[in-house]
């Protein structure tokens, strides 16, 4: 197996194809990683959520990262890490941006389910305030693994 770095452009192509990743944030030297559903466009991840630990931590420390993978098997995969800054899209100040986030996410199947299901599983509050946030991508890095003798193309989905 060979592992090689990929270009920033290739990283952004992987992010644009993705819809599920892992969000890493930290507070008081404690890391926290959670899965997220997202839409990626023009150096921004757009995410729907409800208030909880990740939002609380990102409000206190907006420096975050997102990891996105495309995995075919143990020896053929691509992994991208994007470092960035959390921005909450509160209305009415960010009405245009939150509307844009909703429009992008609505193209994803059941885009809202994870955030609401998680919140409802922990309580009986059916009046949950949804929120949208975005992560402005400051830098991206990525690796591609290929089995010996495989071509240099991205893994097929």
Question: What's a concise summary of this model?
Answer:
The protein has 157 residues and is an alpha+beta fold. The protein has helices at residues 8-17, 53-60, 95-105, 113-122; strands at 2-5, 20-27, 30-37, 39-41, 44-50, 63-73, 76-88, 130-146.
Folded structure, characterized:
This protein is α+β, with helices and mostly antiparallel strands. It has one domain (2-146): Electron Transport, Fmn-binding Protein, Chain A (Pnp Oxidase, Chain A, Roll). Helix content is 25%, strand content 45%. The chain contains 4 helices and 8 strands, in the order βαββββαββααβ. It has helices at residues 8-17, 53-60, 95-105, 113-122, and strands at residues 2-5, 20-27, 30-37, 39-41, 44-50, 63-73, 76-88, 130-146. Strands 1, 2, 3, 4, 5, 6, 7 and 8 form an 8-stranded antiparallel sheet that branches. The chain is globular, with a radius of gyration of 17 Å. The relative contact order is 0.26.
The CATH architecture name reads Roll
Question: According to CATH, what is the topology?
Answer: Pnp Oxidase, Chain A
Largest sheet: 8 strands, antiparallel
Large-scale geometry: globular
Rg over alpha carbons:
17 Å
Q: List segments where confidence is low: pLDDT < 50 over at least 5 consecutive residues.
A: 111-115
Give me the number of helical elements: 4
- Portion in helices: 10-25%
Mean pLDDT across residues: 86
Could you give me the name of the CATH homologous superfamily? Answer: Electron Transport, Fmn-binding Protein, Chain A
Quickly count the domains. 1
* Order of helix and strand elements from N to C terminus: EHEEEEHEEHHE
Which percent range describes the beta-strand content? over 45%
CATH class: Mainly Beta
Distance, first to last CA: 19 Å
Q: How many extended strands?
A: 8
Estimated structural class? alpha+beta
